[in-house]
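Fold it.
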Amino acid sequence: MLLILEIGLTIAAWRRGWKSRALLPLAIAVGVGFMAGIFIGIAGGSTGEALVICTLLDVVCIGVLTGMVVKPRQAEKPLPTTDQPLQNVESSSPKY
């Protein structure tokens, strides 16, 4: 159930201007959850411990994605341009 919510929030964040950066929270949560499961399995831990850690990762991922949806990404501002030609900084340059 949480995965469906995460996918929906990822789509919403993508549409709010985050583009491919909206995929990062879900990718990080899945990667860390996978590695945590491997390490808990190697250490001989129970599935209950893995469930707690993965649930915590899901809650953090949903929180980050919700923040991305609530606050859309600001468009990059273009560099200021001037219509005037560049002036030489050095005043000792010879003038022809």
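The chain has a mean pLDDT of 86.
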